[in-house]
Each structure stands twice: as C-alpha cells, then as structure tokens.
Design goal:
This protein is an alpha/beta fold and 429 residues long. It folds into 3 domains: 1-39, no CATH class; 71-319, Type I PLP-dependent aspartate aminotransferase-like (Major domain) (Aspartate Aminotransferase, domain 2, 3-Layer(aba) Sandwich), CATH 3.40.640.10; 322-429, Aspartate Aminotransferase, domain 1 (Alpha-Beta Complex), CATH 3.90.1150.10. Helix content is 39%, strand content 14%. Helix 2 (71-83) packs antiparallel against helix 11 (304-319), helix 3 (92-104) packs parallel to helix 11 and helix 7 (186-195) runs parallel beside helix 8. The two termini are 28 Å apart. Pyridoxal-5'-phosphate (PLP) binds next to helix 4.
C-alpha cells in the first residue's frame, strides 16, 4: 500500500513533536487514523499535502469567519509587511484596534491586546482577582478557557476529547481556587456563591459553549448569573474567544442582551494571526499595569502584523452587517439537511446551533450540559468523521467541538455536505 505524504509527515513529526502535533485535538486521537497535513486554503476549501481538496467546517477552529485567505485580509497583511513586523513600541494600529473593539462591543470600555485566547483568559481572571481582592472563581464543567493551570479542571475541547479533562501537572494549589458548576444550572451557582460568600472574584463562562460541542444557555441561567454577580460583587467574565464577532458584531452578549463586566476575545479578532484580547469596565481595566498594580505584559502583544489582519477582519464586520443574516441562512440550511440525513436512517440526533456554530451530537437526548454531551456515541462520530473525510468534507476530528460555517461557503457547498452526510449515515448507522 502506498503511504501518503500526510502519513510520512506524521510519522516523522511524532519523533520530533509530542504526539506529532502542536495542539492535541489536531492529532485525530478520538476519531483514529492519521491527521491530514494541509498545504493551502482558499475560501471554503482546503487542500492537503497529497493534493486532496476538502470543504472545510473548522476554519482554523474559528478564526476564518470569511473562509481561508480572503483578499482583504491578505492585502492588509502584505501592506504592513512592507513597513515592519514588530517594533516592541506602541504603534497606531493598536489604538485603532482598541477603538474598534470598544465601539463594536460597548461593554468593553478599555482593552488590552495579547497573543492568544489562553493568555487573555488568564489575564482576565488575574485582573478580576486584583480588582476584587478575592481568590476563588467559578467555571463550568466542559467549558474550555485555554490551557492555563487553574482552568484545566473538568475542561472541554481537546482535554475532554483525550479523556484528561483534569490535567496532570496542575497542582492541588492551582486547583484549590477553581470552583466547578454545571452549565445551565443556576441553583448550583447560587449555592456556591452562598457557601463562599465574599471569596469569589469571578464567574467565567462561554456564553455559548463551543468546547463540549455547541451548547446553548437558557435565558434564565444567563439572566440569573448577571443578577447574582451584581448582587455579590462578582466579576462576570464572558469568554467570547469563540463567539465574539461570530454570533454578532457584538458577540453573544449582543445576542442575549446581557452586559458582562469583562470579555475575552481571540480567534476572529486576529484575522487568522495569533491574537487575544481582554477588556471590560474601565474601573477593572485601570487595575492592569502600568495603569495599576496587576502585572501583565507581552513582547509581541499588539503586534503590527496581527493588528493589521485583525483590523481588516473587524472593519469588514463593521461595514457588512448583512454577513450575519447570510451565515444564519447557510447554517440553518446545513442544520435542516443534517437532521434529514439522520432521519433517513431513523435517528433524531440532537443538532445544536446558533448562528454559524453548529454541532451534531450522536445522541437523541437534548444536550444542555457536560453530562448530556457525553451521552453521545463518540465511536459512531469517529466513523461519521472518516466517512465525511473520504468524501472530501473536513469536520472537527472530535465529537465535542463546534463546526463553523463561513461567508465563503455557498448553498451548493452546504448541499454537497448534506448529500455526503446522508450517504455516510446510510453506511455507518
Ligand atoms: C479557543 C478558545 C480558547 C483558547 O484560545 P487559544 O488561542 O487557543 O489559546 C479559550 N476560550 C475559548 C472559549 C476558546 O474557544
């Protein structure tokens, strides 16, 4: 049997990089097989190193709201490239970026740029702790907030997929101040707030979860968290690394009409380059160094190349509000088609969707939290994933992830994917 270039690369990579990848969920551990190495991407398609083309539903795990390599982002990067890639000193692009973010997301009065979502969530919790003088914070089981030590406790995404939701290397001390609650369960949060009254600095939440697959919050849950945080002086942090600029120009907080005290961004905000940001109320952000005593820094933070790419993305969003209607229509079409494909084999699989975030769970139970997410048949998802891959459709290589549709997808693309899903279902179910 002929060995593909992806297989050759993966074999070599495994001798040089732990597990052969630079981020765990890329390794296909939960679906089996060899990860596909990509050579290029354009619009809704990616091409692998063996020349196979796929319709892509990952979009680099979220950043590619406009598909791969859109001309307007490419041009912005090239223009900045001519001027220099890093100064380690302030540049005008950072001011423009801060102005644009604060105008798109009104709850963000001041913002600090960093280099990844992980860095942004760690810094946001530090600022909330510094602001409140309290140590503990609440996170929800199955939510992922990057790989900071004290977040890797019952975490989602790759941690969940690999069966290490609570990672070795996280000390008891690190874990001690992390309080866990069940998503969509307000009563549990209220109990924790009562038990640790005056000790909780923050509640951090994915306002729509992407990292146990797509899971939506109830209105009562969201409103209840806001009321509780206001009453107890707890900083409500929306981790909008995935939802920010994807669900609406102002993120999930705009969709639900809830104003968090702090917000965290990543992914789309960098236009495909490594960027994160955290921001919120002025009184909290003024605690961050050098305005205040809470230390946080970065050699490449506010990097001009990354700012140029991110600014191009956010300006496009600001100038083209109709993209969200378009994404809604395309992804609703996918949702209905997938439901019909499942029904063609007698299954009512749960499909959760909001805007252009969608997940099909191989479970017929409603999925509203971690416990219901893990009722999914992950082995069957693995078969579905490989069936779809063989047909040229690249889905997340794990059940507990969101799929993303981009503005570069067409109705014809979606219909192709639905037709393939139906064929694959009939083979595997
Ligand atoms: C991706 C993600 C992160 C981590 O961002 P990185 O850039 O991968 O460090 C944090 N929170 C959420 C909700 C995410 O989806």
């Amino acid at each position: 049997m002929q060995i593909s270039t992806s297989q050759q690369l993966f074999e070599k990579a495994q001798t040089l990089i732990p597990g052969g990848v630079n981020s765990p969920v890329r390794a296909f551990k939960s679906v089996g097989g060899t990860p596909v190495f990509f050579a290029s991407g354009s619009g809704s398609r990616v091409t692998d190193v063996d020349g196979n083309s796929y319709l892509d539903y990952i979009g680099s795990w979220g950043p590619h709201l406009f598909g791969h390599n859109p001309q307007f982002i490419k041009s912005a990067i090239l223009a900045q490239l001519e001027k220099g890639v890093s100064f380690g000193a302030p540049c005008g692009l950072e001011v423009e970026m801060a102005e644009l973010i604060t105008s798109l997301v009104p709850s963000v009065e001041m913002v600090r740029m960093v280099n990844s979502g992980t860095e942004a969530t760690m810094s946001a919790v530090r600022a909330a702790r510094g602001f409140t003088g309290r140590d503990k914070f609440i996170k929800f089981e199955g939510c992922y907030h990057g790989h900071g030590d004290y977040f890797l406790i019952k975490a989602g995404s790759g941690a969940l997929t690999l069966g290490v939701p609570t990672s070795p290397g996280v000390t008891k001390g690190n874990a001690a101040d992390t309080l866990l609650a069940t998503y969509n369960n307000l009563a549990e949060v209220q109990e924790l707030a009562e038990k640790y009254k005056g000790e909780i600095a923050a509640i951090i939440i994915e306002p729509v979860v992407g990292n146990m697959g797509t899971v939506l919050p109830t209105k009562e849950f969201m409103n209840g968290l806001r009321q509780l945080c206001t009453k107890e002086g707890i900083v409500l942090i929306f981790d909008e690394v995935m939802t920010g600029f994807r669900l609406a120009k102002g993120g999930a907080q705009e969709v639900f009409g809830i104003t968090p005290d702090m917000s965290v961004f990543g992914k789309i905000i960098g236009g495909g380059l490594p960027v994160g940001a955290y921001g919120g109320k002025k009184e909290i952000m003024m605690k961050v160094a050098p305005a205040g005593p809470v230390y946080q820094a970065g050699t490449l933070s506010g990097n001009p190349l990354a700012m140029a790419a991110g600014l191009a993305a956010l300006r496009y969003i600001q100038q083209n509000p109709a993209i969200y209607t378009r994404l809604e229509e395309l992804t609703a079409r996918l949702q209905h088609g997938l439901a019909a494909a499942a029904q063609s084999v007698g299954k009512n699989y749960t499909i959760n969707r909001i805007g252009s975030m969608i997940s099909m769970f191989f479970s017929e139970q409603p999925v509203t939290d971690f416990a219901s997410a893990v009722t999914s048949d992950t082995a069957l998802y693995g078969k579905f994933f490989h069936g779809m891959l063989d047909e040229g459709h690249y889905l997340p290589p794990a059940q507990f992830e969101a799929w993303f549709v981009s503005t570069a997808h067409t109705e014809a693309n979606i219909d192709e994917t639905i037709a393939a899903a139906k064929r694959v279902m009939q083979k595997i179910v």
